[in-house]
Design brief:
Distance between the termini: 47 Å
Strand order of the largest sheet: 1-6-7-8-9
CATH class of the largest domain: Mainly Alpha
Radius of gyration: 23 Å
Number of helices: 14
Strand content: 15-25%
Largest sheet: 5 strands, antiparallel
Structural class: alpha+beta
Number of strands: 9
Shape: globular
Length: 390
């Protein structure tokens, strides 16, 4: 689906309103993954060089050269988040985010690179990083546009700051309190006639702010194909369909696993299980990638009302603790959810050794449970069918 941009944002890009124009570097060479002149960690080598990192066309070309997930890129990214957010070291964060991008350009790495560069007052490169994050479809779009408004305001480029702020609002940014109090927007507020009126008009053109954020969130979940089986093999299908931490109000586990406490947990869209005008039932996955890349995911099914208020929630796949039975869920179009509870025995203790090169030596079915998604969005346990546990 082609993204529809607000007209003022299209005009801004077309006009090239920017303080931060830069010369394009040379095109990247097509390097072999095993080229010893460009060594990388593990099986990956750099697909772009550091002097090409902010060239949009070369970045898009580099993205086209990479397939699947790069473990090396992901590890650099998580180390960068740890350095930047936990250790409060933006300089080290910049180095690590760049290393992540050199291995495989990703929207989230460019977004965090922009944040770290902005903290270091490198506004030119911060703007470039944010622009490429948006080019690579960082979600939510409103957040990266808002950060661009802040960078341009700090650089005292009123026209660009104003365009990006209004564009951010049109893409769903609705935190009016932050708009009127954020110190990064001080220049724009002080130098825009009737700033309050401009923002009020922009916000009035949007729907209710809370409902808008909810709509942005649930629309990222695509309808699932039935029957849907959520097991260990499904974990490999999760790919890079990450859920942004901007939506933590809808994903309770994010509030328990913020980067400030645990940098190894990632969240993924699975799909939209059921949708009516008043109720949306979604499925998402969470995975601790710091333990092992092959760590099984946990799967949650959650129902919300029309404004994103929680109705009900159920863990249907994986397990939150290794001592708990491992769940495997099968969902059907009629709303039935069959959950098998298994006891798994690995050759080595996964808590100590992880899941890489760790053979699953025994699996025993303990129990089967059957739930149904009711019309009001609850998950109701049904009596086991005759012979179900046999």
């Amino acid at each position: 689906m082609i993204k529809q941009f607000p007209m003022r944002y299209v005009l801004l890009l077309a006009a090239g309103i920017s303080l931060f124009a830069c010369n394009a570097p040379n095109a990247p060479d097509d390097r072999s993954k095993n080229d010893p002149q460009h060594p990388g960690k593990g099986q990956f080598t750099a697909v772009i060089s550091e002097d090409q990192i902010f060239d949009k066309q070369l970045v898009l070309h580099a993205v086209s050269l990479t397939e699947g997930k790069s473990k090396v890129s992901d590890k650099y990214f998580l180390k960068g988040v740890d350095a930047y957010r936990n250790q409060k070291n933006p300089e080290e964060g910049v180095k690590l985010f760049k290393q992540s991008i050199l291995q495989q350009p990703q929207a989230r790495a460019y977004f965090e690179l922009g944040n770290a560069l902005a903290d270091l007052n490198n506004l030119k490169d911060a703007a470039s990083a944010y622009q490429i994050a948006e080019l690579l479809d960082y979600k939510p779009t409103s957040k990266v546009l808002y950060n661009l408004a802040c960078v341009y305001s700090r650089a005292e480029v009123e026209e660009s700051a104003r365009y990006y702020l209004i564009s951010a609002i049109e893409f769903g940014y609705s935190n009016a309190k932050n708009i009127f109090e954020d110190k990064d927007l001080a220049y724009l507020r002080d130098n825009t006639s009737d700033f309050q009126g401009m923002v009020t008009v922009a916000l009035s053109g949007a729907t209710d702010p809370d409902k808008l954020q909810w709509n942005l969130f649930w629309h990222e979940f695509k309808p699932v194909s039935y029957p849907l089986v959520l097991d260990e093999r499904y974990s490999k299908k999760l790919g890079e369909d990450y859920i942004s931490y901007e939506y933590e109000r809808f994903v309770a586990e994010m509030r328990d696993s913020k980067f400030s406490r645990d940098v190894g947990v990632e969240f993924y869209h699975v799909g939209l299980a059921k949708a009516t005008d008043s109720i949306k039932t979604i499925i998402y996955a969470t995975k601790d990638v710091m333990i092992s890349e092959n760590t099984p995911a946990e799967y949650y099914i959650v129902s919300f009302d029309h404004v994103g208020k929680l109705i009900d929630k159920l863990l249907i796949g994986g397990h939150e603790k290794l001592a708990d039975p491992f769940r495997v869920a099968t969902l059907r179009e009629n709303g039935d959810i069959e959950i098998g509870l298994f006891n798994q025995v690995y050759k080595k203790d996964p808590e100590k050794e992880g899941y890489d090169d760790n053979e699953l030596v025994d699996v025993k079915l303990l129990e089967k449970q059957l739930y149904n998604i009711t019309d009001d969005g609850h998950f109701v346990r049904k009596d086991n069918l005759l012979g179900m546990n046999r």
